[in-house]
Every structure is written in C-alpha cells, then in structure tokens.
C-alpha cells in the first residue's frame, strides 16, 4: 500500500503539482491514509512551504517570499470559509435525515451544494499552486524540482 501511495505521489511530482516540507515527508510512512496526507499538504499550502523552507537554496527575493505567503494565506482563508459552509450543510443534512419522512430532494440539493464548495476549494488550490510556480523564475522552479527529488531519494533510503 505504501508503495502504491509513493508511486502516486511521484506521479504528482512529475506534474509539478505537489511539494511537501521535509518534516512532512517523514510522516509519510506513519500515515495509513494517503488521502489524509494529501489533505494535510493541501491545507498547508503545498508547494509553498517547501519553497519557503528552501528559500535560500532557491535564491528567493523578499518580494517572492511575500507573494508566496500572500498566495498561501488567500487560499487558507478561502478554504476555511468553504469548509465552514460544508460543515453547516452536513448539520442540515443530519437534521433532515432525522425526520420520519426524509425530503430527499432537499438532501440532494444540500449534497450538490457541498460538492460546489469542494469544487471551489479545489479550484482555489489549483490557482494557488499555479500562482506559486509563477512566482519562481524558471531556474528556481527547476532547482526546486531537483531539491524535491533529492528529498524523496533521501526519504526512500531512510525507509529501507
């Protein structure tokens, strides 16, 4: 299972869509659910923490750091607001489901609303990652991929 998870993660890395901090990478083998790790990485603003952690190696300017932090905060605020709406809808659905005659139409509408909020979160995440990649110069982006590969090689050696 871990091998499948790492293979899936490496596929995402090839696309340049996901980066994790070294401190988080260590927890991969402790995580029994890849989905939980992906959610954690997403909420922490992947790949931004990795870029910031390696800002000296990447040669990030103060302005680049400021832009990356702003992207991460903007995403986190949006995700928090959307997740709050999802929780409210979950409560509404539970309330509807406790009725003798469940109004399935209302429940289905609430489910559609939940999916719409999740789509907003996913879209915001994609926007943040794309924006983060654009903050870096092409040389810095290539260097970040090299650092990421080195980190995963180190992690794989430590696991065996």
Keywords:
mainly alpha; single chain; disordered N terminus; 8 helices; 160 residues
Description:
The chain contains eight helices and no strands. The protein starts with a helix and ends with a helix. By secondary structure, the chain is mostly helical. The radius of gyration is 19 Å and the shape is elongated. Helix 6 (about 60-95) packs antiparallel against helix 7.
Low-confidence stretches: 1-32
From the alpha-carbon coordinates, what is the Rg to the nearest angstrom? 19 Å
- Summed over residues and divided by their number, the pLDDT gives a mean of 80
Strand content: under 5%
Major sheet attributes? none
Shape: elongated
Instruction: Assign the structural class, choosing from mainly alpha, mainly beta, alpha/beta, alpha+beta, or little secondary structure.
Output: mainly alpha
